[in-house]
Amino acid sequence: MPARKYTEEQRERFFEVMDRGGTVRAAAAAAGVHPDAGYRWVRQAGMAHDRPAPRAYSQQDKDAFFRLLAERGNVSAVARKLGFVRVTCYKWANQAGIFTGKNVDAKREEFARLRAAGLTRARAAAQVGVDARSALDWDRGVRVFSGGRVYPDGRVVRYRREQILAAVKAPRTTYVQGERVDLARVEQVIHPRFLSLLERERLRDLHRAGMSLRAIAAQMGRPPSTISRELARNTTSARGYLPHAAHRSSVVRRSRPKSPKLVANPALRTYVESRLAKKWSPQQISNRLVKVFPDDLEMRVSVETIYQAIYVHVRGELKRELARQLRRGRVARKPRRDPNARTPRFVDPMTPISERPADVDSRAVPGHWEGDLIIGAASRSAIATLVERSSRFVLLGHLGAERTADVVRDALVAEVARLPVALRGSLTWDQGAEMAEHRSFTTATGMKVYFCDAGAPWQRGSNENTNGLLRQYFPRGTDLQAHDRDALQAVADELNTRPRKSLDWETPAERLAALLNAS
């Protein structure tokens, strides 16, 4: 069946819609041409185009396809009738064991019979309904398969991309026509010296009218070099200069990517990497730089820049493995959750926090502590944690495999016994059953125990924050019995020498010493 003839006006309308960013099918519909013709024109013009997202078909669509296929027996005709993608319909048919392709062997046998009867190759091909190239291959005994040819002597020749492109004068290596660019960037007017979209459309019209470059420049009030450069740089298809595609290309070239700071400054990068290896947070690193390098403005980096270097993982920046050194150890950033959605803790009302003296809330007087447990794998091991509210000084109690009230009490008493009397003020705990022996703890240490409200861990926020820090050393789901008292003391010493934002980037050990000296 010969191809339909379309007018030049239809071709112009088709490429006009394509130039404005439309899809091939949308442009074909607007021009009143068949989509296959549109795809053929695009290939002939050397234009690239974005492929839309695959169409989703329902089970009802498949049922309708098979019903109509049973009546007509031709996959292409059914796909065209229903408006479905032909390749998808062939896939459905093949998966169902239905093959309705052309009987090439029967045609080949008929072609051989006609040739044996004395018909010329051209007449035999016309009667069978095949093209001249297929007729020539059949005469020579060549069989064609996807990706190559098999000759009568057994030779197999596979098609290669280099051989296919050898006869192409200017093969397209970049995709310009269908490139997606943010609409705000396309419409943004930078400076009058840059060509606008309206000027590019006028340039296309004048150029098609046959005017010389200097005449076009005079008409548009632009230097001839600007017109010459614009046409040479942005003529990307056999259709000639397309203004919308040219405008999108200019917007893409407009960007000037900047080298990330942690790539451009090796000394800064080394400092950040070394502190991340010590489990410092990006916020601690960013603010500590100001204190360590007060006069070196090059040794500055924002918190977000560090996070971007870790998670975005631009080539040449911080290693992705450093994300494991962060407090949560995540390899990807996670959106914040509503803190009110946390699971409530055990309820065991005791002396409420509302009865705690007001001077404890002010954090002005040292010696008031917050405590909790961090739990190991399968709840079979635990570590007791104590945090001094004024200085964030940390003490860790070894519990091993047990976390009963007696074991927790004895571990806390042992840790508190190492403190001077001035630092034995009070202890704030949650309503967990492990503090059932709080009265005997108070008798042994002289420290009164106050309990948070049910489901309100933020009332002992310093301890919650410290437990998050400790998870860098004692990850969830691990056996905490493997850490002896010396290992716990080493972790506590490392935390107590780490700068904190809440302490104006002093360390807990420094702040505690200053408070004791002042008192």
Can you lay out the helices and strands and say which pair or pack?
Layout: H1 8-19, H2 24-31, H3 35-45, H4 59-72, H5 75-82, H6 86-95, H7 104-116, H8 121-128, H9 132-140, E1 143-145, E2 148-150, E3 156-158, H10 161-165, H11 183-187, H12 197-208, H13 213-220, H14 224-234, H15 243-254, H16 261-264, H17 266-277, H18 282-292, H19 303-311, H20 358-362, E4 368-375, E5 382-388, E6 394-400, H21 405-416, E7 426-429, H22 438-445, E8 448-451, H23 461-470, H24 485-496, H25 508-518
Parallel strand pairs: 4-7, 7-8
Antiparallel strand pairs: 1-2, 2-3, 4-5, 5-6
Helix pairs in contact: 1-2, 2-3, 4-5, 5-6, 7-8, 8-9, 12-15, 13-14, 18-19, 21-22
| Biggest beta sheet summary | 5 strands, mixed
The DSSP helix count reads 25
**Can you tell me the CATH class of the largest domain?**
Alpha Beta
The largest beta-sheet arranges its strands as: 6-5-4-7-8
Give the overall shape, derived from the CA principal axes. Answer: elongated
Global structural class: alpha/beta
Low-confidence stretches: 173-178, 342-348
Strand content range: 5-15%
Q: Please tell me how large the radius of gyration is.
A: 38 Å
What is the CATH superfamily classification of the largest domain? Ribonuclease H-like superfamily/Ribonuclease H
The domain tally reads: 6
CATH topology of the largest domain: Nucleotidyltransferase, domain 5
Q: Based on DSSP secondary structure assignment, what is the total number of beta strands?
A: 8
- In the CATH classification, which architecture of the largest domain applies? 2-Layer Sandwich
The averaged pLDDT comes out at: 81
Helix percent reads 40-55%
Terminal CA distance: 101 Å
